[in-house]
Amino acid sequence: MNPLAYYELQAAHSLFGKAAGALEAGEARKVRAVAERYAEIEAAVLGSAEARGVCLQPEAIDDAFEEIRARYEDPAAFDDALDDAGLRHGDLRTALGRSLLVEAVMARVGARVPPVGETEAEIFYYTHLERFRSPETRTARHILITINDTLADNRREAAERRIGEIARRLAARPARFGEQAMKHSECPTALNGGLLGDMPRGQLYPELEAVLFALREGEVSAPVESELGFHVLLCERIHAERTLPWAEVAESLRTRLTEERSRRETRLWLQGLMATATVS
């Protein structure tokens, strides 16, 4: 087996979405360079003191094998891709085992760092409060009537008339919005009473966003047109911009900071390992 075959298979897929045998000359050179670097890293990591005693769960290789096989339309396409790369099933399993061991060693190195404590995380929080601001959002519902000249009820004039009638009914009785959405809306959200969810700015079509963020809480809009068709919007609730309180973010922040510290430790360890290997 070509010792680079596995990494060439993986690099060809991740970089170009192709089988190794389908690469253009320039792509093949790029894949080869990446594969050679990965192979150097693998050799250095598996030869390190930190690799001693690391082992895999029995099902890990099977799961990784199936994950790669699932990329392909059928078993024949999978086997063809392996043939292009110069791999057999057994070769792939062996290479996967080595790759998974590399990941396990890196995880072991990262786990050496102590977890970030509450005091350190709290200091980070109060010195970076701008990162914990939650923008204004609005809980929105909508009713959509599409425009389709091939359907009598959805020709522009008919669709505009229908949405106007719905808007007039809802102006008098906004509490009927969910019922009217389920009865009349042509959007899949109709099944949930037209609920769009909590919408920040930048998520909706500009025409809809401008209308939604001008509504008062509980107010129903006049008809508004987007490229989808005609809409009526309900601003069900306004959630003001706020800074997330420490208690709400404490646990997730400690986890994130610990993960960042772990990745940094792993990166520095690998840089030192590769520098030593280069000198040797």
Quick structural summary:
The chain has 280 residues and is of the alpha+beta class.
Report the biggest beta sheet as strand number plus sense, adding barrel if it closes: 4 strands, antiparallel
* Structural class by sheet pairing and helices: alpha+beta
Q: Helix content range of the residues, please?
A: 40-55%
pLDDT averaged over residues: 94
Strand order of the largest sheet: 3-2-5-4
Whole-number tally of structural domains: 3
- How much β-strand is present in the residues? 5-15%
Order of helices and strands: HHHHHHEEHHEHEEEH
Question: Mind telling me the C-alpha Rg?
Answer: 28 Å
Determine the N-to-C terminus distance.
Answer: 26 Å
Low-confidence stretches: none
Globally, the shape reads flat
Number of strands: 6
| Number of H/I helices | 10
Question: What can you tell me about this protein's structure?
Answer:
The chain is an alpha+beta fold and 280 residues long. It folds into 3 domains: 106 residues, no CATH class; 48 residues, no CATH class; 105 residues, Roll (Chitinase A, domain 3), CATH 3.10.50. It contains 10 helices and 6 strands, in the order ααααααββααβαβββα. The strands form 2 sheets. The protein has a 4-stranded antiparallel beta sheet, with helices on both faces. It has a two-stranded antiparallel sheet with strand order 1-6. A hairpin with a 2-residue loop joins β4 and β5. It is flat and about 75 Å long. The chain starts with a helix and ends with a helix. The mean pLDDT is 94.
What's the structural blueprint in terms of helices and strands?
Blueprint: H1 5-16, H2 25-46, H3 60-69, H4 75-85, H5 89-110, H6 118-127, E1 133-134, E2 137-146, H7 156-172, H8 177-184, E3 195-200, H9 206-212, E4 224-226, E5 229-239, E6 242-243, H10 246-279
Antiparallel strand pairs: 1-6, 2-3, 2-5, 4-5
Helix pairs in contact: 1-2, 2-10, 3-5, 5-10, 6-10
